[in-house]
Amino acid sequence: MTPDAFDQLLAEVANKLAEELTDAGLLLNNIVIRSSSEVVETLQGRAYAAVHTRAPSLPDVVTVYQAVVEVDAAREGKEIRDYLERLLRHELAHHFSYSHEAMYRIQANRKEMSQ
Ligand SMILES: [Zn+2]
Asked: For residue 99, how far is its CA from the centre of ligand 1 (angstroms)?
């Protein structure tokens, strides 16, 4: 996928989620979502996205790494769009201060309720 096509897809997914959040009464006014063609190594391995919280007055920046997303989506047999949607939901949850533990708890409750 070309970087332009990836950026376009990322923008579509981000706009869709922003609409959902606005409908739910949540404002997304302090976050920037951007893509990068760099691959970044982190302590935990390859990063597919990173949230950088800088200062309270500055927006959170979510950087999405195209190359890693493409490899991981292919490995999971997922469409890039679906992968990006799950990824952005996760990063937006961090933006709203959810920890991984809280996210897993919510997911587990949801599974329990749907059984
Ligand atoms: Zn996370």
From this structure: 7
